[in-house]
């Protein structure tokens, strides 16, 4: 029998579904759904072990992200020569980042991530054409290697800390590879599926998933993802750029608050 704080009433399930729907919508456009789902789970179930809540979040998010990636793949040309190595690099190095967490406090990472996000925001805001055109920069022979390196670095970061992984992936695909925003966002979904699958496998193997809540959230996340993907495909790179800037601003606000709180 589940402990009392694992029992979900109808209102709890409705709220979880609502948060998961919004998270799926945002995640489908630019990533960052965890900014909505994770705080919601922790706020609603403060007595539950963090690993259990994070595992439940992964079950929900991987479902929405996978469906969004499939919908994008039907309409946006994705490059398997880059994404294959990127997924491999992310899957290999994400567990390494998770291991580093055991001896490197996350508080030490926040200021660096905050600084990087501010640079990303300024660069994207100042360059109005950032991500508006698809103009690959790298020679074809270097793209798989660059894809693996990007996946490895950001997979390691995802295992170590996590917030903003999707935003950093989009930025790298636009800035380094020269892809437009819509292609970059779709490609980031594919890599995120790989990192989420690795994490979910660990949480499931160690019994850290609330399957009933996770399944309900997954269904709502998929619904939000379908809506978000449809709007992004219809509105194009300009819409994705605006939502990307809003997401990065939200990340900067959250991490800035966390850094100040840790310093006080």
Essential attributes:
disordered N terminus, mainly alpha, 264 residues
Would you write up a description of this structure?
- The protein is built from ten helices and no strands.
- The protein has one domain.
- Helix 2 runs antiparallel to helix 3 (50-75), helix 7 (165-175) packs antiparallel against helix 8 (181-205) and helix 8 packs across helix 10.
- It is mainly α.
- The longest helix is centred in the last third of the chain and has 27 residues, at 237-263.
- The chain has helices at residues 10-30, 34-44, 50-75, 80-100, 110-126, 143-160, 165-175, 181-205, 211-235, 237-263.
CA radius of gyration is: 18 Å
**N- and C-termini, Cα separation:** 41 Å
Shape, principal axes of CA atoms: globular
Helical fraction: over 70%
Could you tell me the mean pLDDT?
A: 84
Number of helices, counting only DSSP H or I runs of 4 residues or more: 10
Count of the separate structural domains: 1
Helix/strand class: mainly alpha
Quote the beta fraction: under 5%
